[in-house]
Amino acid sequence: MKIKFWGVRGSIASPGPQTVRYGGNTTCIEVRTDDDEIIILDAGTGIFPLSQSLMARQPVHANIFITHSHWDHIQGLPFFIPNFVPGNVLRLHGAYDPVSGQGVEQVMSVQLQYSYFPVREAELRGRVEYVTLTPEQSVRIGSATITPCLLNHPVINYGYRIEAGGKSVFFTGDHEPPYNIYQTGDPEYAEYQHHIEEKDAAILRGMQGVDVLIIDTSYTAAEYPSKIGWGHGTYASSFDYATRAGAKVLYCTHHEPTRSDDALEAVFRQALAEHPHARGLDIRLAVEGQVHEF
C-alpha cells in the first residue's frame, strides 16, 4: 500500500515562502493498494496537482471519499481535471447532511453554480456518481474495504479505515475528541458521559491496530482552550489515540495555517518533549508530496 500526501494544511490554503517545506495545500491524500486501486481522501486544494498526475493514464476511474463538507476539504473538486474529459468517471462518497437534508451530491451542486464557478455540473464531460455512506457500513473498491466511522466535528465527519492485502490506514479528517458539555454535578452529566465513552470506544475500534494513523493535529495544548468546540485535535490527543489504538505509525496533519514551517517544527518538538510516553511511537509530521509505502 502506498500513501501520498497532496495537501496537509488545515482550514485555508497557505502558499508562500514560510510553508515551502511542509506545503500550503489543504487536505488531500492518495491511497493506492498493491493492486493499484486508487482511493482519494478529501478534495482540498491538494487534489488539483493530484488530478494532473492522473491525466497521464486515461480513462480515469477515481473514488473520492469526503470526510465532511467544510471548504478546505472540498474546494478542489471543481478543479478535478478528469471531470472535463469524456470517458472518465468520478465516484464521490460521503455523508448525508442532516442540516441541508441532502446527500454527498450537494458538495458538487453547491460549488458548481455560476455564482461560484464558470462551469455547471451539467456541463462536465466526465461522469460523476454519488454514494452516500452510513457509519460502520463498509464499501468495497476492488481489493480494498473502506469503513466510515463517525467522528466529532460541528458537521457530520467520517473518518475512514482502509484495509487491503492485510494492510490498513485510518484517516480522521477533522476531529476533536468528544468531551462532556455538562459540568460535574449537573443532572445530565452522567448520561452524557456514558454517551461520550461509547463514542470514544467506537472511534478507537475504527483505528485499532492500523499500520498508519493520519489524524487532525491542529493545535497545541496552550492553544486549545480558546478553540474548544471548533472540532479539531491537539498533539496530545493525537498521541493518545495512537497509543491506545496501537497504531504503528502516526502522521500529524491539518497543520495550523498561520504556522510557518519553522514554527510547526518548534511546536512539534515541544509536544514530543511534553509527552515522553509518546517517544516509543513512530510519530511524523505530514509533508506535502511525501510518500509512505508499506
From TrEMBL:
Record InterPro entries: Metallo-B-lactamas (IPR001279), RibonucZ/Hydroxyglut_hydro (IPR036866)
Superkingdom of the source species: Bacteria
Gene3D superfamilies: Ribonuclease Z/Hydroxyacylglutathione hydrolase-like
Domain Metallo-beta-lactamase positions: 25-207
Gene Ontology MF: a single term: hydrolase activity
Entry keyword set: Hydrolase
Protein name: MBL fold metallo-hydrolase
